[in-house]
Amino acid sequence: MHTERLGHYEVELSARQFIHNGGWAAFAAIHARADEPSGEHGPHGEGAAVFPEQRVADETVFASEAAAIAGARKAALAVLTYLGTVSPPR
Question: From what superkingdom does this record's organism come (predicted)?
Fold first, then answer.
């Protein structure tokens, strides 16, 4: 799993390999950063879930773990851009 900080959010990116064909699926989760003063924290001190972990790019089977992580990052950025919390990458 890879974790990145984007603004006030912590993004968790992961990939899981399919047993039947060896391809990879992309997963992402977005949490409010636990070190933010908003006070919105989970029971274990983590930030509140903005986007619970789920498979992203549902129809895409990636050729490698790295490609799946990149796909998860792209999807997470799209969610944050849609919410207006980060600017689109240039």
Answer: Bacteria
> Does a structural domain hold residue 89?
no
Structure tokens at 79: 């969610």
- The DSSP string of 19-81 is TTT--EEEEEEEEE-TTSTT--B-TTSPBPEEEEEEEESTT--BSSHHHHHHHHHHHHHHHHH
Max CA pair span of the chain = 45
> Is 88 domain-assigned?
no
| Residues 34, 45, 48, 5, CA torsion sign | positive
Residue 40 forms part of a structural domain: yes
Q: What is the pTM of this model?
A: 0.79
How many distinct structural domains can be found in the chain? Answer: 1
Averaged pLDDT for residues 9-27:
94
